[in-house]
Amino acid sequence: MKRVLVLNSGSSSIKYQLIDLNRGVTAVSGLIERVGENIGARDGRLTQHLHFDDGKETDSREALDIPDHATGFRLMAEHLQDCGLLKDFHDLAAVGHRVVHGGERFSRAVQVDEAVLAGIRALVPLAPLHNPAAVTGLESARDLLPGVPQVAVFDTAFHSTLPARAYEYALPRDLRRRHHIRRYGFHGISCQYVSRRAALHLERPLDELNLIVLHLGNGASVTAIEGGRSIDTSMGMTPLEGLVMGSRSGDIDPAILTYLMAHADLSPKDVSRLLNRESGLKGLCGSNDMREVLRRREQGDAEAALALDVFAYRARKYIGAYTAALGRVDALVFTAGIGEHASPVREAILEGLSGLGYALDRARNAQATGEVSEIQRDDSRARVLVVATHEEMEIARQALACVEGGVTVALPER
Predict the structure, then answer these.
(1) Alpha helices, DSSP H only, in 299-350?
(2) Are strands 383-387 and 331-335 parallel, antiparallel or unpaired?
């Protein structure tokens, strides 16, 4: 029995997937939206996608009244059983929960008990938008499915291997320790999945490989991986640091913040909203959607062209820095929505990097599809891969390994 239900609980949504690790497939995927909004108006929505063994797929959508997460989880359970692909929840090996922030305490997936719940609650100040929803999801799933192991899988855990030179900020020691200020890094679940998948493709042990992973979506990061261990990553104490993102600024002179508070009459809350919701691509050209940025650039829009140029240049600088940090890079890996699907962005990022060993083949880049594609020229010193990420599969793998007592669960062959 290697079926795991993977849950990602947000403040007003629940995403779920039923993963069959024996076959390496998703049997059911679903999304519950507008939880707790417009109570009594049947304004909630449940969308479920079924994947059958014979290759057939079906979708269902339903408008419902979903006043709270407990109701949402109950409706999810009913729909999973009604579809016939999960008759008894005790057939599950585990329920795996995506938890954004594990702080310094959680460096691996853990089975959830009261002490773990208390630890995740204690980290709410570091992830006020995410960890409260994760706690709600853990509590609701535990109440709904008593006896089924609940496992928390942390997005920060992969980066627990960062050396002090990479995670420490140059601030007074007392402040750093008292307020838990350090680089934590994010997108760790995705990095783990695509690095394993890259190793399978390259037919080399992961602990022998040096990789640079670019997770490029609305949130974006770069991670340097040495022998399967994260040694540096662009996101910091929060997901705001590093690359230019959809609506996040990325790296910025910190004095700009005090300047704006003094001269633009902005409060700390205003500054936080500015940097997280109104900056990045959106701040540069008015749109946080890279597809729209590319469309406008093709039409000659100067602001869109600048936005792509800034986005690519920032990523290019991090590639150079992490190439120096690693010394030897076996493969550069693009993943996530932009990384997997936007060939012009990959081309813009790699422009001028052949001297560092990353020589792009434009034809291969334009044709990249599927689980793994190689897009480098034959004379490139390093391989350049496009790898489709599957965070839910990685959560399922880690959850199963956790309940089986730390047994390594390999990624399914594709």
Answers:
(1) 302-326, 336-341, 343-350
(2) parallel
Burial of 172 (0-12, 13-18, 19+ CB in 10 A): exposed
One-letter amino acid for residue 401 of the chain: A
Where would I find the H helices in 124-226?
131-144, 164-167, 173-178, 188-202
**For 204-391, which CATH superfamily applies?**
ATPase, nucleotide binding domain (3.30.420.40)
Residues contacting residue 189 through CB under 8 Å, at least 6 positions apart = 98, 153, 155, 158, 391, 394, 395
With CA atoms as reference, report the closest residue to 334 among 293, 386, 296.
386
CB atoms near residue 394 (< 10 Å): 27
How many CA atoms within 13 Å lie on the side-chain side of 344?
Answer: 11
Three-state SS string over 89-108 comes to: HHHCCEEEEEECCCCCCCCC
- Tokens standing for 55? 């290759």
- Is residue 25 within 8 Å of 413, Cβ to Cβ? no
Helix (H) or strand (E) holding 6: strand 3-9
What pLDDT, on the 0 to 100 scale, is given for residue 39? 63
Name the CATH topology of 3-154.
Answer: Nucleotidyltransferase; domain 5 (3.30.420)
Our answer to whether residue 155 is catalytic in this structure is yes
Which listed residue (43, 65, 82, 155) is catalytic? Answer: 155
According to CATH, where is 3.30.420.40 located in the chain?
Answer: 3-154, 204-391
**Helix (H) and strand (E) counts for the chain?**
15, 14
Which residue positions in the chain have pLDDT lower than 50? 407-409, 411, 413-414
Q: Is residue 348 a contact partner of residue 229, using CB atoms and an 8 Å limit?
A: no
Residue 56's pLDDT is 67
Strand order in the sheet with 44-51: 57-64, 44-51, 25-33, 13-20, 3-9, 94-99, 150-154, 110-111
Question: DSSP 3-state assignment of 225?
Answer: strand
**46: Cβ contacts below 8 Å, ≥ 6 apart:** 30, 31, 32, 33, 61, 62, 64, 66, 75, 76, 79
Q: What is the per-residue pLDDT for 222?
A: 98
| pLDDT number for residue 72 | 87
CA distance 333 to 268: 36
Q: What is the pLDDT of residue 413?
A: 46
Strand ordering across the sheet containing 210-216 = 229-233, 220-226, 210-216, 331-335, 383-387, 372-374
CA atoms within 13 A on the CB side of 152: 33
